[in-house]
Write a structure and sequence with these properties.
The complex is a heterodimer.
Chain A lengths: L1 H23 L4 H12 L9 H24 L9 H16 L13 H23 L4 H21 L1 H4 L17 H23 L1 H11 L1 H6 L4 H27 L4 H5 L1 H14 L6 H19 L6 H16 L3 H40 L1
Chain B lengths: L3 H14 L1 H21 L1 H28 L6 H23 L5 H37 L5 H24 L15 E3 L2 E3 L1 H23 L1 H11 L1 H6 L4 H22 L12 H14 L4 H22 L6 H13 L16
Antiparallel strand pairs in B: 1-2
Classes of the chains: A mainly alpha, B mainly alpha.
């Protein structure tokens, strides 16, 4: 009996230690389990075909973007409408730095593994500048200004033809010399996890508390001594930094860049839709939604090839319906289910405890006697 | 001397209060003169003509923001709907009237097509309000409304653009010319009849809107709602009538712009993107919700655009105006003509 107890105690001790570790990086055990599934799934037969792996990559890319986007939109309530443009800045910077071809005026030939950080820093600096200029205005102004700047950046990219080849597009080198998609999947998955953990830890700290306060009630936040502009600029800069970082993945995976294909407002709208369907202010909502969504959308696109744009209409319809009828999104849905389950569980436990008390009561009497 | 002093003071105060507007207006006039000097009178006239249409778009945007508090992102899609409506009506009418001997009928065909655009736009606005904004308003909390409405319009824009691609395909549909008459000569510069008519239509629409807002009971109710929603309700204004009407009017104005500029912007699922951008630009510059400012702003932007194209090249049309806008917003966040919308700046 005692050995069994000790074993069980050890096991639960180990388990709780694992839970603590998982929590420390901002995951729940369920989330960590899902991540493991994501890591393993592309190796299992029906999913290990190249086109499925490509869908997985698209899903992870979209999920990572949605995380970075939601960090701004969900927490400080500023919609970064130029998100795709910042992503494009990162993509172009890293692509130009990696360039060795003679068709551009510069051929630095820097490894994309270093260039990606340069792209991220440049996008972050641009975000810092824009945030510093516009984030003292109310949310809608900042959103529209970010949109204007995004359009301007796209125009600039199109015009700086000696550097970017304009709308003819760039064909940067890839990260790896392989035709297989699987290594790229693990790269983008790792990037996604890094972004998630970083932003999750930030939002869990006192900084995240300040973000939430600003997003919920600006005047109350100011009254409690929070400098809204500082925190908003910090938030915006971080989000833009990661957008630029992700852009370099786009550049060195797809190996094809045109201003329209990365920097257009429609790209921002796609990310926005995923982030909001996932649930604003949750960070993980977009991640959960992105994978099934990409599979669904790609399935629709390949099945109804004679109806171009159908998948986009579904996108828009879903977004409108959610916005009106379920504004907290999938994350909100999961939260409410969990709360309900916990309430039921608690009720059961309470019933069980009272039963135990009833059972124990006579025994106690006996022992007293 | 003493009696004159207040006058000088009041003039000085008027100037200092309206300094941004005066500076911008003055530099616009200078810009117009420079453009005219470099590119001839036709350039100025062209920019005024397109400016009239941007004013039309921007007035609708300002109206919707001022009255309903919606930052309308689907305004460009109203432009698109107008362009398609005009195109189809015009094609059908032209086919049937090709052999008609009546010159009047042939001249009136484009006007009927543009009127059809207005009707289509109005119906679109009614549907949007009744189907989408009304349920959202019931569910939205007071502080979240502006952002929620904004995101909803993003979804609407996404759906209308892609829905059009789905139904009509991604083909360009345009008419090379509405009126095949010889160009008119205005101050010695040739101006095509289409452009001149577009300008006349924009002036008529704006004037009609102005009269409607200032001289009718319903128009005054709309303005009352934009000033104070609760106060207007207490005076017996029915918001469930005012909101659909306002959105319908605004989208109808954008649709008229789309219809009348069909010769310049061919109907295409994403044709609304650049008019939307320009309309937002005008509204941000003039001050959100400021209708009179939007009218003037439309012409200013028309001239700014032409000047950019002329001196920096077509490719810089997006970049330079954005820089100008950043400067304007830094100096006067509430727009050059000011606005009644509260809480633009954090300060």
């Amino acid at each position: 009996m005692t050995s069994m107890d000790v074993q069980e105690g050890k096991r639960s001790d180990l388990w709780s230690r694992i839970v603590v570790c998982i929590n420390a990086i901002g995951c729940s055990p369920l989330g960590a389990g899902l991540l493991v599934v994501l890591v393993v799934l592309p190796l299992i037969p029906p999913f290990n075909q190249e086109h499925f792996v490509r869908w997985f990559i698209m899903g992870a890319f979209l999920a990572a973007q949605a995380i970075a986007f939601d960090f701004t939109a969900g927490y400080i309530n500023v919609v970064n409408f130029g998100f795709a443009a910042f992503l494009g800045v990162g993509a172009y910077t890293s692509a130009i730095l990696a360039n060795e071809m003679p068709f551009l005026i510069v051929q630095p030939g820097i490894s994309p593994w270093i260039g990606m950080w340069a792209g991220a820093v440049l996008a972050g600096l641009l975000g810092l500048g824009l945030g510093w200029l516009t984030l003292r205005l109310r949310g809608i102004f900042a959103a529209v200004m970010a949109w204007f700047v995004g359009i301007a950046l796209m125009g600039l990219t199109r015009n700086l033809a000696p550097l970017t080849r304009g709308s003819m597009g760039l064909h940067p080198s890839t990260f790896l010399d392989t035709t297989s998609n699987l290594p790229y999947y693990y790269i983008i998955l790792a990037m996604m996890i890094v972004i998630y953990v970083t932003l999750r830890l930030v939002t869990r700290s006192h900084i995240g508390l300040a973000f939430k306060a600003i997003g919920q009630n600006l005047d109350a936040a100011k009254a409690s001594g929070i400098n809204p502009t500082f925190y908003r600029v910090l938030n915006f800069t971080l989000s833009c930094f990661f957008a630029g970082w992700l852009g370099s993945f786009y550049a060195h995976y797809y190996a094809s860049l045109t201003p329209r294909s990365v920097m257009h407002t429609a790209k921002t709208t796609e990310v926005l839709a995923i982030a909001y369907i996932g649930g604003r202010g949750s960070i993980w909502g977009g991640m959960i939604v992105a994978f099934p969504f990409v599979f669904f959308i790609e399935y629709v696109r390949s099945t109804f090839a004679e109806l171009p744009g159908l998948h986009m209409v579904i996108y828009g319809a879903l977004m409108i319906l959610l916005m009106i009828f379920y504004p907290s999104g999938v994350a909100g849905m999961v939260e409410s289910i969990r709360e309900r389950a916990e309430a039921i569980l608690r009720a059961r436990v309470a019933v069980g405890e009272s039963d135990a008390q009833v059972a124990r009561a006579p025994k106690a009497d006996v022992s007293q006697k | 001397m003493r009696q004159k002093l207040p006058l000088v003071k009041s003039i000085r105060r008027t100037i200092s209060e309206n300094l941004p507007a005066i500076v911008v207006l003055f530099s616009t006039v200078v810009l117009a003169v420079v453009v005219g000097g470099a590119g001839g009178l036709a350039q100025i006239i062209n920019s005024i003509v397109t400016g009239g249409m941007w004013a039309l778009m921007a007035v609708g945007l300002a109206l919707v923001f001022g009255v309903m508090n919606i930052p309308q992102f689907a305004h460009g899609e109203a432009f698109m709907v107008g362009a398609y409506a005009s195109y189809f009506v015009f094609q059908v009418l032209r086919r049937n009237l090709e052999n008609s001997s009546s010159a009047f009928l042939r001249a009136a065909t484009p006007l009927v097509a543009i009127a059809a655009a207005a009707v289509a736009g109005f119906i679109l606005g009614l549907f949007l309000e009744k189907l989408l904004f009304y349920p959202l308003r019931l569910r939205s909390k007071a502080g979240e409304w502006v952002m929620n409405a904004f995101l909803l319009t993003v979804g609407i824009s996404f759906m209308l653009t892609n829905g059009t691609t789905l139904v009509l395909g991604a083909n360009y549909r345009g008419v090379p010319q509405y009126w095949s008459a010889a160009p008119w000569t205005i101050l010695g510069a040739p101006v095509s009849v289409d452009r001149a008519m577009a300008f006349i239509i924009s002036v008529i629409c704006i004037a009609a809107l102005w009269l409607f807002l200032s001289h009718t009971r319903t128009g005054r109710a709309i303005r009352a709602v934009s000033q104070d929603e609760i106060g207007a309700q207490m005076m017996g204004v029915n918001l469930n009538f005012i909101y659909p009407l306002t959105l319908g009017l605004a989208t109808a104005l954008a649709a008229v712009a789309g219809g009348s500029l069909l010769f310049l912007f061919q109907a295409y699922p994403t044709v609304g993107v650049s008019p939307l951008y320009l309309a937002w630009y005008v509204v941000m510059m003039a001050g959100l919700g400021n209708i009179a400012g939007a009218i003037v702003g439309g012409f200013i932007v028309g001239i700014l655009q032409t000047a950019t194209q002329q001196f920096a090249g077509v490719v810089w049309t997006d970049v330079i105006p954005t820089m100008v806008m950043i400067v304007i917003l830094l100096v006067v966040p509430s727009g050059i003509f000011g606005t009644d919308v509260k809480g633009i700046s954090e300060k």
